[in-house]
Amino acid sequence: MDPRVAELFGSGAGLMSAAPMHGPGSVNGLGLLSKKTGSKNGKKAKNRATRNTKSNKNPPYLPPEAEEGNIEYKLKLVNPTQYRFEHLVTQMKWRLQEGRGEAIYQIGVEDNGLLVGLSEDDMRASLKTLRRMAEKVGADITVLREREVDYDSDIPRKISEVLVRKVPDDQQFLDLRVAVLGNVDSGKSTLLGVLTQGELDNGRGRARLNLFRHLHEIQSGRTSSISFEILGFNSKGEVVNYSESRTAEEICESASKMITFIDLAGHHKYLKTTIFGLTSYCPDFAMLVVGANTGIAGTTREHLGLAMALKVPIFIVVSKVDLCSKSTTERTVKQLERILKQPGCNKVPMVVDNADDAVTAAQQFAQSPSITPIFTLSSVSGENLDLLKVFFNILPPLSNSKEQEELMQQLTEFQVDEIYTVPDVGTVVGGTLYSGICREGEQLVVGPTDDGKFLGLKVCSIQRNRSACRVLRARQAATLALGNFDRSLLRKGMVMVSPEMKPTICWMFEAEIVLLFHAKTFRKGFQVTVHVGNVRQTAIVEYLHGKDELRTGEKAVVRFKFIKHPEYLKVGAKLLFREGVTKGIGHVTNLHPVLINQNHSLEE
Q: Which stretches are tagged as biased composition: Basic residues (predicted)?
């Protein structure tokens, strides 16, 4: 196991030092040995740990409490004084701010991470105090799990892990974006239909019908476009979806946490759409859906590779377990584990069998990129569907409040991914606010146009998750109404920025690339489709630094030139290019900017 994971989730039971245990016998979020990552060595470590616990009565440790982050340790909270209570409330506000509206409290744990535990009465009193604290800051608490600890006492002692979640105000709920990947017919859209509609599938794809956007998708049963679906959780951790005839607006109002699923196409002929969804919509996580009956087939490996190339944390859902025997499902899971452990992946697979595993998986997954949870479920029978919901409920955001604040203080930059014309509203653009804050009535400039200009416009109104919103903050996705602005002047790949910003636009740029696959040799004059964020355009290879040609697996710095129009790029942006079977990844290292004058038009 990755040493960072072992360090985060404590050391072996019975060892008084807080030194991390490396290797398969590491421990989970409550300091107890993980069943999934163990092997023979893990069993030996477990036996040794058990012997030590029985003889010394020394409980295991969690890592010492960190001053930053959203995890708080409390030994007990029994009848605090008024002054102490106010101090505890202030502390809770800080932890909630660090977790962007969510915090985890470990009750019965000392600040150094020692698992002491509390008696039944003390635990009840502590949870009552915690509930009062939460009410004071406008939050709710949910007990995630309780465990008995073996401490030097005759009375049974417990520790509790509690989720504290803020009740949303002014639609500022926590929003996580999950890209849904997988081969065609693996059950992606059906799974999303079941999660978001709250009704199981009939085995013939009824659940997915609400997700399709085009007639040919309904007829063929295959997704060809990018669609968005939402799944909410309220402050008590209960699922909020369309099951009770709610509208999207009602879901947004009652949810404290929102999971936005980006349903991508599985068929190989729609690969460019899938890549665009992964690069432009900035997903926080990727969910790879694999059919238990077909195993790793078609585009599964390719989608896994894409997510890893773009450094999107990935977890796996094995669907359709109702269609095949237990041995077939186990064979598919073993196949996945073998691929994940290969040198190219270097992942630690973690099969989720119960709610306790789901809690541990959610916490470890966000902390370490190498952990890969694997769920086995059915959209028809509903088997293990609740475990996936528990996972989504607890899954924390990747960025902390400090990073979010820094992004919000920058100048406004909105990436245009979709363009619509809505009757009685006018031109509407959809996309993600990359940095800054965007308000209704704000004046921005959009570009670059084909001749490199930036044009002024006004944001008339904002909608987020299909409900009205007055303020848009960094990393949030939304649609902006632009009134009577001419739609023909807009295209995907443009940016809307603050007039004070001096955007860098270019025809030519340099990138350090790795050629993943090419049938022959990659040389000057070769044309590829380049994906950088929301930019998708054909570019020609102008020059290879220090080399005449490239073969599969080789690295080089390459100069590309766009063939249609200039684009807005940033140094350091991830780049992905393809042409037929040719594929490569890299990052932008240098730009050859086109100068823009004060009036935001191209300098001749």
A: 37-51
